[in-house]
Structures are given as C-alpha cells and as structure tokens.
Design a protein that fits this description.
Length: 332
C-alpha cells in the first residue's frame, strides 16, 4: 500500500518504520529541510533519536505536501493537536481521490475542544474521505522505533475498516486490536495525558508507590465517569486504549506529560516549567478542555480539576494534595 505520514517527529517516524517493515511504500512529510535531507541521505532522524539509529533505506521524506499525498490512499496524521487544523486545511485542496485518515495524535482541537476525529470530519469534505481511524494505545515511539513489543488499538466506527487498518500495521513486534468505540478511545487517549501530569507531580513531591497507585486508579475512575457521560464504553477503559495507555503514560520517563508533572512537583509550582518548556505536552491543553467541559456538565473530576488549578491558577501542588486527601469519604 502507498501510505503518507504527515509529521517527521518521534511518532510519525516510528509508525513510518512499522509500515515500511510491513512492506508498504511509505513517504514522510516534514517542514524542516535539514531533517528531511538527513532522513533521505543518512537514514537518520537525530532531532528525535540517537545517531546510532538507522532508519529503513526505502522510507523517504519530503517537504512537499503535494508530493507526499500524490497517489496515497492512506494518510497517517502524526502532528501535535495544536497543528492539526492547519494541516488538515492544507491537505483538503490537494486531495485528488478519497482517502483514509489514520489519526495518531492524542488530544482535543484547542480551538473548539472537539475530538480529533470530529475535527477531521469538519475540515475534510465527506466526498474526499472514507471512514476515519485512530491508532491508540500504550506506545512510546522510543520503544516502537527499536522494534520492542507493543500492542495498540485500531479504532473506527466501521469494524471492518478497523480490522483492515489493524492488518496494515500489525507485525511480529507491533500488534493491533480492532474496536469501534471512537468516543471512549479518543477521550481516554487525551485525558490520560492530564492524569500523567498528576502522576509526575506526585513523584516530584516525594510521595511513594502507594500514592502513585491510588492516583492512577482514581484517575482511571475519572476517565470512565467522564467518557461514559459522552457515550464511551466502560470496556474501552479497561483495555489498551484506556488502562493500558494510562499505565504507560503515568509511569514512564519517555512520557512528556509525566516528566512535566515531575518537574512541577519538584518545584511545587508550575510557573518555571510553563515559562521555560518548549516541548509539546498535550496534557496541559487537555486539562483546560476537560475542566471546562466537566464544569458545564457537572462531572466530578477532582484530579483533573487539581491539575487545572496548578497549571492555570498558580495553585501549589502540595496544598492541593492535602485538599484531595481531605475530601468527604465515599464508596469506591
């Protein structure tokens, strides 16, 4: 199959290698000429991976979006959510045939707070696209690029299409399960990033395994409560797109969200991190989206609410931990 990967970051590069390993014709689109040149001539991407990592020779890159899309039926979107709307608007007029969009970003549209699948439907005319798919699950690009064992989900409203995309990506180190709960999977994939910030804060403040286990467990309960309110299924949150993704993001030093929380916890303040951070930390924007929507719909999400106050109201994490621990006792 001819496949275009939009984005030459860690996840776009890693997924490009997975698909190339599977024998597909893959081209990556990136904006940085030096990075694209390095991928094509040296078969490396040292902006994101070490110089010792060699990419497949047959995987190429281009700075021309038109060239990347030409003749491609499958388009993998691997750009930050903040850039997604702009990228989709550049793609739309260049499409000459109906295509499948495979979303690999985890978050919400920062302008409208809609899920990414909804954003794609809003920006790409129906006559130019087939069903939309999301690749979601516990999958750090830093491990996938090393061909370490990974399992994720292919989520699509049409189960037949979900299975087709699962087959497209699956191999002996990258296993893909098919499912149809788009709402549950996409909300879970976004919301766990904010829970991961809270997990990092807990560790940064010096608390131990007991506190982290409680935080992640109650975070999962918030994900289920919030997701079900909008039509997500409990089963989804007990699988790879829920619990699996939450576990890896809340416990790994590969996770930008966890590492952000870790620094905030050590400082007992978000001020320095927010003033100096240049990396994409999706959980920061997600905290505001979830908080605002939860307030409007009267959904109780105390962990997300606490992270929101730390990030946007200059609250001290150590003080909010005390407040969380003194909340009225209730049944689990």
């Amino acid at each position: 199959m001819k496949i275009a990967i939009i984005g030459t970051g860690t996840w776009g590069t890693a997924l490009g290698q997975v698909l190339t390993d599977n024998g597909h014709d893959v081209i990556l689109y990136g904006r940085e000429e030096s990075q694209v040149k390095q991928i094509n001539e040296e078969h490396r991407n040292t902006d994101y991976f070490g110089p010792e990592l060699i990419l497949p020779i047959s995987m190429v890159a281009t700075t021309s979006l038109e060239k990347a899309l030409k003749g491609r039926r499958y388009i993998v979107l691997a750009v930050p959510t903040v850039a997604m709307r702009s990228v989709l608007r550049q793609i739309a007029p260049l499409l000459t045939q109906k295509v499948y969009f495979i979303n690999a970003a985890k978050g919400f549209d920062p302008e409208t707070s809609v899920r990414i699948s909804e954003l794609i439907r809003n920006e790409i005319p129906q006559e130019r696209r087939f069903d939309i798919i999301a690749i979601i699950g516990p999958s750090h690009a830093e491990e996938v690029i090393l061909r370490q064992l990974t399992a994720v989900t292919s989520t699509c409203l049409d189960l037949v299409v979900a299975h087709r995309i699962a087959k497209l990506f699956s191999n002996n180190y990258f296993r893909v399960y098919a499912q149809t709960d788009e709402i549950g999977a996409e909300i879970g994939a976004a919301m766990k990033n904010t829970i991961a910030i809270a997990s990092g804060i807990i560790q940064g403040l010096g608390y131990g395994d007991n506190a982290r286990a409680a935080l992640v467990t109650r975070g999962l309960a918030e994900m289920v409560k919030y997701g079900k309110h909008f039509g997500g299924h409990t089963k989804t949150y007990l699988g790879l797109a829920g619990l699996g993704d939450l576990m890896v993001t809340c416990n790994s030093y590969h996770s930008r969200n966890f590492m952000a929380g870790l620094q905030i916890g050590k400082d007992d303040s978000a001020a320095h991190f927010l003033a100096t951070n240049k990396a994409t930390v999706e959980g920061i924007r997600t905290a505001k989206v979830i908080y605002d929507i939860a307030q409007k719909n009267k959904i109780d999400v105390p962990i997300v609410e606490s992270v929101y106050h730390v990030l946007y109201d200059s609250a001290k994490p150590s003080e909010l931990i005390k407040i969380l621990m003194m909340r009225p006792l209730k049944e689990e």
